[in-house]
Amino acid sequence: MVKTMTGKELDELVSKGGTVVCDFWAEWCGPCRMLSPVMDKLSEEFADKAEFAKVNVDEDGDLAASLGIFSIPDVFVFADGQVKTHNLGYLPEEKMREFLKNNL
């Protein structure tokens, strides 16, 4: 399941190492609302490969700015404390599954 986190909580999780997938979103964002159930489903499918989180950019704008996030949704993959890759924009379930398979 995707855990809603603050930027500080995400920083702590990422700093522990391992792999973290984070969906940066906002309540007003239509594509973000479309992506949310996709991420919930895929978080269960890939639970053995990564921890899944989501951070509201309206509540944690400083973190979003530090990562260069200027448009959402933006799904980041962190590995061993560093940004590995990210995908900007909505992807349907099959495309997001492919993105995760290629990066986890």
Explain this structure to me?
The protein is α/β, with parallel strands linked by helices and 104 residues long. It has a single domain (3-103), classed as Glutaredoxin (3-Layer(aba) Sandwich). It contains 4 helices and 5 strands. A 5-stranded mixed sheet has the order 1-3-2-4-5, sandwiched between helices. The longest helix has 16 residues, at 30-45. It starts with a strand and ends with a helix.
Q: What is the gyration radius calculated from CA atoms?
A: 12 Å
Span between N and C termini?
Answer: 16 Å
SS-based structural class? alpha/beta
Strand content: 25-35%
Question: How many strand segments?
Answer: 5
With helices defined by DSSP (H or I, 4 residues minimum), what is the helix count?
A: 4
**Unreliable parts:** none
Give the topology string: H per helix, E per strand: EHEHEHEEH
Specify the overall morphology: globular
* Share in helix: 40-55%
Indicate the CATH architecture. 3-Layer(aba) Sandwich
- At CATH level 3, the topology is Glutaredoxin
Average residue-wise pLDDT: 96
Q: Biggest sheet, strands in spatial order?
A: 1-3-2-4-5
Q: Domain count, please report it.
A: 1
CATH class: Alpha Beta
Biggest sheet descriptor: 5 strands, mixed
Query: CATH-wise, what's the superfamily?
Result: Glutaredoxin
Secondary-structure map:
Elements: E1 3-5, H1 7-15, E2 19-25, H2 30-45, E3 51-56, H3 61-66, E4 74-79, E5 82-88, H4 93-103
Parallel strand pairs: 1-3, 2-3
Antiparallel strand pairs: 2-4, 4-5
